[in-house]
Amino acid sequence: MDSSHNKTQILSSLEEHRNRLSKKSLIELFNENSNRGSDFSIAFGDLWIDISKQLIDSTTIGLLADLADESKINQFFSDMMAGSPVNWTEQKPALHTALRAPRDSKILVEGKNIIPDINGTLEKMEEFSDSIRNGKLLGATGAPVTSVVALGIGGSNLGSLMAYKALSNFTHREIDIRFCSSIDPVDLNQTLNGLNPETTIFVITSKSFNTKETLVLMENAKKWLEDSIGIEGFSKHLVGITGSREKATNLGIEETMIFDLPDWVGGRFSLSSAAGLVLMISIGPDEFFHLLSGMEEIDNKTLSEHFESNGTLLLSLIDIWNRSFLNYPTMAVVPYSSQMSYFPAYLQQLMMESLGKNIRRDRHGFDNSVGSVIWGATGTEGQHAFFQFLHQGTDVIPCEMLGFSNSYNEALQEQQNSLFANLLAQTEALAFGSYPEKEDLTPEKKLEGNRPSTVILAPKLTPFILGQLIALYEHRTVASGVVWGVNPFDQWGVESGKSIAVDIELEMNKGSSSEAMTKRNSSSEKLLEKFKILRNI
Ligand code: F6P
User: Fold this and answer.
1) What is the pTM assigned to this prediction?
2) Is the pLDDT of residue 86 over 90?
3) Is 242 within 8 Å of 207 (Cβ atoms)?
4) Is residue 493 assigned to a domain?
5) Sign of torsion, CA 436 438 439 440?
6) pLDDT digits (tens, 9 = 90+) for 191-202
7) Domain-located, residue 289
8) Is 353 annotated as catalytic?
9) What range defines the domain where residue 276 resides?
10) What is the rounded distance in angstroms from the CA atom of residue 87 to the CA atom of residue 90?
11) 26: domain CATH number?
């Protein structure tokens, strides 16, 4: 934790409170308060957030509120949304909220109001999206573009991919959208299978335009285009979304086909920027703007609601309670919606790349753990894969269940009801176990319960609702970073792997093990040697 004297007192009060509360079960907590289900739930935007099956009581909430106050979270969010350089290791603002702020806002970065540029980018995105959706965008041979292949990785892929899958009920039926992120040659080949170069464009998203995987994919895409429509025409089929315009033009993307990513938006926070272009092409500008409105709704509530009715802060501080006080190292995210199947992977980057840090702002290390391993899968599938571990494993794993009450098609509502019945059954069994106990229950069949979970219930999976969920997790992640005292906006830890890969790749085509590999370490040396033998080099 980022500690001041008063904060130290609050932390020790939380530890004492944990020792007392750990003697109580969820069954006892529910028996003490017949209204617990309501008392520990809030409406936040259009979301119903039920934390009643977390291992907390009103004292916990009070102490966590003190911790939030002492951490000056509200001040941090005000500063962040006003453009302060809250990303302190890179001396940059983190202004993803500006991307969905009212069009007449005024937010200054280095003395310049950034809103006109944001509006300009949105207008360019809208014009481009409509030209494809209306069949007006023609390729090099004069054929209308009907296929879009999105190339990118990490924050330049996961947000769009997640939202595209989540909003599949809103996608344009005649436009074929595909995503490719891996340097594995099979991935692009499978992605391109059946596509016609004359009617296909590639949207290459890379803030740095320096990410090896994405650049390799782009070169392969250019070759695929050239083989069919020749070298003159392929620039009509390449769109760049980047913060590095010069690198993109040097690699053959035309100026007019570039959409700018501002330096003050991090990749994992970038869906509401031009990085969302492919999504806008698919669901259309109007629905994309509904997504932005949902985000803005939660931006505002995160700033304005007091702790006990602030879903962002409550969920963030409970994450800290579960991680730093109850010492649960992971959290399972279980959306009861097949359309939300990519949501766990999206949250993995958002939460783990933001909070996987071990140095605080005051340069001290930590005396407790920070950040959780985020993993998960869709609801009923998870019940047939890892829920056994959740119910009877030796480790307690807090769960986050997401449910939606309304199906798209009234005729399918019965199945939607079954989905929610499963969600309720699982969160209940995790909390209360085999209670009330049956006599003949052998130890192997007994569920101890007392396994915490949160339920987030939304009316329907629409762009507006998805926008609310995305902003909720963005801010929840940032709030946890503030309390823990880490920078949620940088990712220095992933840089070294990239440069090591460059060095090793230089050795790949050398016949035998080189001196350079010997100097590295005996494992890499031996593995590369084996790789080459297996390649019959
Ligand atoms: O994983 C490291 C990272 O820098 C992410 O933060 C980012 O979203 C991803 O790589 C892709 O980076 P770029 O958009 O620059 O290609």
Assistant:
1) 0.97
2) yes
3) yes
4) no
5) negative
6) 999 999 999 999
7) no
8) yes
9) 114-283
10) 6
11) 3.40.50.10490
